[in-house]
Amino acid sequence: MSKVFNEDLVASVAREMKVADLQNATIGDILLVASRLEELTGIPFIRMDQGSPGLPANRIGIEAEKAALDKGLGAQYPAAAGVPELKEAASRFVKAFIDIDISPRACLPTTGSVAASFGAFIACTQRIPGKDKVLFIDPGFPIQKSQLRILGIRWKLFDIHDFRGQALRDKMEGYLKDGDIAAIVYSNPNNPAWICLEEEELKIIGELATKYDAVVMEDQAYFCMDFRHPFGRPYQAPFVPTVARYTDNYILMLSASKIFSYAGQRIALACVSDKLFDKQYPALAERYEDSGVFGPTFIASIMYMITSGCTATTQYGMAEMLNRSVDGTINFVEDTREYERRAARMKKIFTDNGFTIVYDHDVTQPVGDGFFFTLGYPGMTGGELLCELMYYGVSSISLSTTGSEQQGVRACTSRMREELYPILEERMKAFHEDHL
């Protein structure tokens, strides 16, 4: 077996889909090209591109939503701050699994974490004149930079690959000392690298956020999915690591998309530190002609203008899933552990055929297995590897599109199925033979 798709066909489809540069293509571009190639040839792709859940949506949430609809709640506008049941459940959930106290009033439902970050970027960069930039600890979620392009907000970034542990302090302070950083953004576990920040690193970030008055936007989209540790036992250590132990300047973003496979319902939480929630900013008061208090301004003057609140019935669905998790009825960690098994099997196929894991270590231990991992191949840039994999019927995205300076691609495990492992193995053996 050699290439599944010839180069001319892939190039032709890329032109048809108006993808100018396949090596630096976005997730959406890759989706279009891979889907069109499947449509034209009937040959299935190994889809490692989009991070869409690959497990069934949680039934408890579905039934709770149905019950809310049957009660007639679909006819009512939800409160801008969210329904009380969800806010109370969110506060309980955060305490149970992170061991952080955040009052219900400071837990805001949003239409996915994408909406949470969009609104938070606005609030954070407008609260203090002169603090108008965002610092990304990359690699990261490309959509967040696209949001800043829409908003006209500038940013700075660095690849954490060479700055783990104590080396992170000097690297970050080099950016923060200019005094123009309003927010610091990262995901933990990381999209795309699946690295996890350790306690000493979170402490550094928290201390610097306080020192330089920057708000940390901590994306916990893959909550409790560092399967190396026994997270997810309500009110029992170990608790999920978070910057919230080390600063009062934080917004935690918790999404139902992955932990409950509830992506289609677009529901997440922006959980704001109580101290930040209550802090008054004259610049916000002047701009929005309101109190200028961060929390109420964030909710009523910013988020409501973007989404007009979250779907009411979906809020009840998430509230039920959160409460059942705290009560122990739902074990969402075991539900999502399938991603760990898939990653281990997929990684072995690739590494047996000459590939390397690009981000392979945290500070003190090898990187875990989960929703994402990263791949490199000797002598190839990330863009070149992306294109070569496309010829063998495997879709991914280049690490260069995520703010990474390393050469490789991101692989997602969510769409892998049992019948695809032999196909992946056959194709990667052919890839390796063709690229010795």
TrEMBL record:
It comes from Phocaeicola coprophilus DSM 18228 = JCM 13818. Its EC number is 2.6.1.-. InterPro entries: Aminotransferase_I/II_large, Kynurenine-oxoglutarate_AT, PyrdxlP-dep_Trfase, PyrdxlP-dep_Trfase_major. It comes from the Bacteria. Its cofactor is pyridoxal 5'-phosphate. Keywords: Aminotransferase, Pyridoxal phosphate, Transferase. GO terms for molecular function: kynurenine-oxoglutarate transaminase activity; pyridoxal phosphate binding. Pfam families: Aminotran_1_2. It is an enzyme of class 2 (transferase). Residues 62-356 form the Aminotransferase class I/classII large domain. GO terms for cellular component: cytoplasm. The keyword Transferase applies. This is Aminotransferase, class I/II.
